[in-house]
Amino acid sequence: MEAENGTALSQFLLLGLSEDPDLQPVLFGLFLSMYLVTVLGNLLIILVVSSDSHLHTPMYFFLSNLSLVDICFISTTVPKMLVNIQAQSKDISYIECLFQVFFFNTYGGVDTFLLTVMAFDRFMAICHPLNYTVIMSPQLCVLLVMTSWLIMFWVSLIHILLMKQLTFSVGTEIPHFFCELTQLLKAATSDTFILIIFLYLATVLVVVLPLTGILCSYSQIVFSLMKMSSVGKYKAFSTCGSHLCVVSLFYGTILGIYLSSTATHSSQSSTIASVMYTVVTPILKPFIYSLRNKDVKGALGRLLSRAASCS
């Protein structure tokens, strides 16, 4: 099959989750409903945090940013899949594919950094309560968020610049429902050694280091909780419970994808597993934070009461 440089290549073929035509309407309805629930749920979190003065704290500032990132994250992949199902097409242009890789990596990386920043915020609140308001100033909070975006912008940009040097066969098929970087590396017909090395370095920066920061923060929190009374332990842990659930879900799905891909070497099983962190995790986060958090539930109740009184 003829190979073409990325700049001359016009399109790829996304094979999606299934090629069974009878399953396409089911997949369309399922993913459309999951996408709408995810967007509306995270928008509600942002609205609740921004409209209630009780939630104008660093923890909820980071939570609202996390919700915004999750909306962008799922919007990078699912809408294109829905359009392809509806149009009965598998095409995605080379430029669209590059954009998907860039934004998917950026939003996914910012997600990991925000989870780490939220763990650091809980560490400061529980282990250093007297200095919390001084250290976690609005300026520092904004700086931490902006730094996360800046790091991932450059990491993703380098990925794209390296990808543009790759060549692919005409009509390259990607056994996925979006342009996922590792699948593109497998499909490339040119040498991918440099990009693979950078991918490993980026994984350490974006996955391993943030996870290490989260584990260090919570190890210090556990030591501090052991010195508190039972009432203090419950109150402190209640502020960490939702975040721990989200962290476990996020990194658990990533670990599951890695184990499934290494154990089975099946692109189909890897594709199905990736649905967990691209779709299922963002849809569950609003429910975890709203159902397990008394402050969010209280703010949501006040927001609904105001809406009802206005109507």
Architecture overview:
This protein has helices at 24-51, 58-87, 94-127, 132-135, 138-163, 181-187, 193-226, 230-264, 267-291, 294-310, and strands at residues 3-5, 11-14, 91-93, 167-169, 173-174. It is mainly alpha-helical and 311 residues long. It has a single domain (3-310), classed as Rhodopsin 7-helix transmembrane proteins (Rhopdopsin 7-helix transmembrane proteins). Strands 3-2-5 form a three-stranded mixed sheet. Strands 1-4 form a two-stranded antiparallel ribbon. The longest helix has 35 residues, at 230-264. Its main location: membrane. Belongs to the G-protein coupled receptor 1 family. This is Olfactory receptor. Pfam families: 7tm_4.
Q: What attributes characterize this protein structure?
A:
311 residues, mainly alpha, Rhopdopsin 7-helix transmembrane proteins, three-stranded mixed beta sheet, two-stranded antiparallel sheet, 10 helices, 5 strands, 77% helix
The coarse silhouette is globular
Please bin the fraction of helical residues: over 70%
Which series of helices and strands comes N to C? EEHHEHHHEEHHHHH
Whole-number mean pLDDT: 86
Q: Specify the CATH architecture.
A: Up-down Bundle
Class derived from helix and strand content: mainly alpha
Q: What percent of residues are in strands?
A: under 5%
Give the distance, in angstroms, between the N- and C-terminal Cα atoms.
64 Å
CATH topology: Rhopdopsin 7-helix transmembrane proteins
Segments where pLDDT lies below 50 for 5+ residues? none
How many distinct folded domains? 1
Question: What radius of gyration results from the CA coordinates?
Answer: 21 Å
Overall CATH class: Mainly Alpha
Count every helix, treating DSSP H or I runs of 4 or more residues as helices.
Answer: 10
Widest sheet: strand ordering: 3-2-5
The biggest sheet amounts to: 3 strands, mixed
The total beta strand count reads 5
Q: Write the CATH homologous superfamily.
A: Rhodopsin 7-helix transmembrane proteins
Subcellular location: Cell membrane
Keywords: Cell membrane, G-protein coupled receptor, Membrane, Olfaction, Receptor, Sensory transduction, Transducer, Transmembrane, Transmembrane helix
Membrane topology: Multi-pass membrane protein
GO molecular function: G protein-coupled receptor activity; olfactory receptor activity
